[in-house]
Amino acid sequence: MGGATKRWRVRSEAGRMLFIGIYLLFVLIPLYWMFITSIKPSDDYLAVPPVWFPSQPTLVHYNAALFAYRGLTGLMNSIVVSLSATALSAFFGTLMAYSFARFNTGGRHLSFWVLSQRFLPPIAVVLPIFLIYRTFGLHDTRFGLIIAYTVFTLPVSVWMMFAYFRQMPKSMEDAALVDGCTRWQAFWQVAVPLAAPGIVAAAVFAFIACWTEFFFALILTSRYAFTLPTVFRAFLGFQGAQYGEASALAIASLVPSIALGVLAQRHLVRGLTLGAVRG
Amino acid sequence: MAVSSGLEQGARVGALPPLSAFSNWSDRNFKWLLIAPAVILILALSVYPLLFSVWVAFVNYDFQVPGHAFVGLKNFSLVIFDPVARWSLALTAMLSAANVILEFALGLALALAMVRNFAGRGLVMSIIIVPLFISPVIVGQAWALLLQRPFGPTNYILGKIIGSEVAIGWLTESPWIYISLILADVWQWTPFMFVILLAGLTSIPPNLYEAAELDGVNAWQAFWAITVPHLAPMMLLALAFRLLDAVKLFDTIFIMTGGGPGTKTYTASFYLYTVGFTQFHLSQATAGSWIFLVLTAIIVGLLVRRLLRAEAQ
Amino acid sequence: MARVKISGLHKHFGAVPAVRGVDLDIADGEFTVLVGPSGCGKSTLLRTIAGLEEVSEGTIEIGGDVVNDMRPRDRDIAMVFQDYALYPHMTVERNIGFGLKARKLPPPEVAKRVKRAAEMLGITAFLPRYPRQLSGGQRQRVAIGRAIVRNPRLFLFDEPLSNLDAQLRDGMRAEIKRLHQEIGTTMIYVTHDQIEAMTLADRIVLMRDGVVEQQGAPLELFERPATRFVAGFLGSPQMSFLPGRLLNGAGELRLTLGDGSLVLPLPQAKKLGGAADGQNVLLGLRPEHMTRAHGEPGQGVVRYDATIELVQPTGSRSYATFRLAGQPVIAELQAHDVGRPGEKLAIDINLQRASIFDAGTERTL
Questions:
Q1: Residue B67: inside a domain, yes or no?
Q2: At what angle are helices B83-114 and B282-312 packed, to 10 degrees?
Q3: Which structural domain, as residue segments, surrounds residue B24?
Q4: Cβ of B7 and C103 within 8 Å?
Q5: Among B25, B57, B89, which residue terminates a domain?
Q6: Do C102 and A180 make contact, defined as CB atoms within 8 angstroms?
Q7: Do residue B29 and residue B140 come from a single domain?
Q8: Is the domain of B29 the same as that of B121?
């Protein structure tokens, strides 16, 4: 032991860092390339060798993406739809999860049915919804997309809140019942404030799911209610000048993604560092 | 405690006012009222559409043809005998398998590497998990930009490394198209495996490893004897979830290859999309999606049973 | 103040029975303790009285009203929970006043009552603070304050001291006893700790497996246990049980212990109903029934030369383990009376106070 182990340890530590370093490069390179593409003047696209960093960065693509390609409309729609669906999903999901956790409503069958909705292939569901929406005039409406997204994110919201309520002691709700509350009052005044962290977590996941969703939006929206991801259709089959707009729009959409990613990470790390273990 | 301060003298508090009829009824049925909105939504936007689509699959619902005549199993046979449909199913299976396996291996390696704390670990973790929060369309966009020919950086760099010019059509030639799609998927979803596996790893009590070291067990043996058994249920969970999501592959295909060249990168979802929304053979697409649904349900059923059995142990 | 009457109560969770036929009649102002090992149904029973669980069969009456279908909020009761159950997002003042506010009492009245309850419990300084800023003992007082402020007719306590350290527990126990003396409301108290039961109760209800094993005044259960379970549950260290056989001959009862090496004459006073010759029994000896031999052995006292095996000192007293006919027995002796392991000591065993149980039914003879 002694010397040999020490050398092995140092080498494995270096190897580990190298691996992590390479992976980080793997993650960052596409993002970096997309970022500089968004600020390159159009001429640079045709340059060989490729321009690694533009000498004259420009914001013209952002302008075009947001306005000429109606990226701003898509952005607004995405915000409205995602926030609304998130609110509905978190609210209804919390209600249902509480019922499951405290009263075991519907037993295993009901909860299984709800959770299994997550595994439905979207194509199977969105085709008939498309037809139904057209009949009811819900096609290409924000409302139609909002309720579709609500149903689409419900299973995960329910699941997360169900797990949260299950580990939350019910003695405070009991105390409220004895103190003078009806079931609804005990739920709303005691259980919900206590479950706030869980609700926030569920909301974050629901929001990201709605913000990044493409398939439903592609089929259920058209000229008015289209969301940010669908704007990228316009850039299909690159015609040179569009590289910049596509990248600009992509970078713009990344803002909430990255922000929420960092937020989620802090949560995760707190939970995971508590048990940092020998590799 | 202070001596009595008269709390009991005439301090009887009044009874609560009786509940209104509505409050009384809603309190008694509280647990049902709580689930009502969610259940109604799911019935309206999942159950009803699925039932409706059963009907659609058996009639002739086509924007180009008037009327909805009953056609029996014609739509189903159209799909089953379509070679593109069969190819798309095979491709879906192969791509999903490749994606999941690679993501698992990479995620596990990453989790093992990140288990120990080090300076800047938090920042590294943020960077690693960001791809999870990005729209798959954007992921496809980013990789398309990197891989495109002739002005993308990939071919240029490869050419520099190899020494001669590289002109690979990453998005237009087989078999490179498959590699591109796998790259994009692995880039996005490896963190998913990573997070779950890391959570599993950090839940293993460190004294198991300490005891093993005292016994003279080396790292490789410790991995197989301690880490793997503890991690097995998590691994299974991660694999099951990722697999069920992987078979829905659509977004990156749409942006990166558009299904091409020809129909070479048609996954099941993309095939059904094409049939339903570019050719508008809606009944045929519906029939196909039902077949796909049944296949998925079978896989879900098998995986759930396996998971439940693992949990029971 | 209210009388509580429970008749034929059954409660099961699906197929699992928790309470299997309990009858209780608690007088107005009485302090009743439900005690027993975990899983005996005492908490479930308490929660059905509170209305937090539904009754499967039977009736519950509080103050003459049948409350089976009444919501907890309408039963005019208060409950103190094991984990205090304080609302974390409210100040202590709002916690205590929560029930009053729910009853639409005017705010100045609420404030007055809250202040009075806080004074009574010595927690006035904590009123503006949040539960997370308080220690366990302080939180428990707030929980009690929340209960007393409404002046209900019945108090329920669900193992309120289990989460406190031992020292704190002793102090709080005395305070709860004093509280009862001061306000005199009917109280039902659940615990698994037999010391709490003995010191607090006017009446102990000892439960086991969903039924009442025995109920009565603490000293009654202690000195005249109905079954071996009751005898073994109360008293620390536990009563020693020695198997033996009865010999009923010539009007004199004797007891053969264990391996037959010892025969004890049973005092006349021990009239054992239904004792048959040759019956297998258990002899129950409490540690305090044995003392170091001095003077002449009294009526019904047997002197025995014991070899001390183990000594556990606790300060003024020591617990000495020795064997009686091969069975281990613990005696509580004065610390200076006990020698060291291996030494021989003459012990006086008072058989007048001993209990005899039928070995099969485990009931007292």
A1: no
A2: 40
A3: 16-57
A4: no
A5: B57
A6: yes
A7: no
A8: no
Most B CBs within 10 A among C120, C144, C154, hence the mutation to make, goes to C120
Between C311 and C249, the higher pLDDT residue: C311
Same-domain check for residues B82 and B115:
yes
Nearest to A120 among B46, B124, B198 (CB): B46
Bridge partner list, C59: C7
**Residues in chain A with pLDDT < 50?**
1, 273-279
Tell me if C151 and B13 make a contact (CB, 8 A cut-off). Answer: yes
- CA C97, distance to chain mean position in Å, is 32
Strand, helix or coil for residue A55: coil
pLDDT reported for residue B40: 96
Q: Indicate whether B1 belongs to any domain.
A: no
* Mean pLDDT for all residues in chain B: 86
Does B162 lie in the same domain as B308?
A: yes
Distance from CA of B23 to the nearest CA of C (A): 13
Q: Which chains touch A (3 or more CB pairs under 8 A)?
A: B, C
The verdict on whether omega for the bond into residue C237 sits within 30 degrees of 0, i.e. cis, is: yes
Give C150→chain B minimum CA distance, Å: 6
CB distance A132–B127 less than 8 Å? Answer: no
Examine residue B174 and state whether it is found in any structural domain, yes or no.
Answer: yes
Task: Mark whether B43 and B107 lie in a shared domain.
Answer: no
Any idea what the CATH number is for the domain that residue B195 is in?
1.10.3720.10
Shortest CA distance from A193: residue in chain C: C89
Partner-chain residue, chosen from A178, A193, A194, that has the shortest CB–CB distance to C72: A178
Closest residue of chain A to C149, computed from CA coordinates: A179
Mutate to test the interface with C, among B7, B27, B30 (most CBs of C within 10 A): B7
Would you say A105 and B34 are in contact if contact means Cβ atoms under 8 Å apart?
yes
pLDDT tens string A125-178: 999 999 999 999 999 999 999 999 999 999 999 999 999 999 999 999 999 999
Q: What is the pLDDT of residues C146-189, one digit of tens each?
A: 999 999 999 999 999 998 988 889 999 999 999 999 999 999 99
Contact A180 C52 (CB under 8 A): no
Together in a domain, B38 and B103: no
Cβ–Cβ < 8 Å for A248, A164: no
- Is residue B48 located within the same domain as residue B187? no
Task: Mark whether B247 and B124 lie in a shared domain.
Answer: yes
C120/B5 CB distance under 8 A: yes
Asked if B12's CB is within 8 angstroms of C73's CB, the reply is no
Our count of domains for chain B comes to 2
Q: B114 by DSSP, 3-state: which? A: helix
Substitution target in C62, C71, C180 with the highest count of B β-carbons within 10 Å is: C71
Q: Is residue B219 part of a domain?
A: yes
